[in-house]
Amino acid sequence: MRNFIGLALAAGALMLSACNTIEGVGKDVSSAGDTVAKTADKNK
Question: DSSP of 1-44, one letter per residue?
Fold first, then answer.
């Protein structure tokens, strides 16, 4: 039972950290898209 609880806690921690990682990647991609759009507008 102790092993199961330990594994469940570890899995939960990994899932939470993965959500933060995916959110960070989304922000980076969004920022890159904004930069490309601004550059395109400037060079029209």
Answer: -HHHHHHHHHHHHHHHHHHHHHHHHHHHHHHHHHHHHHHHHHT-
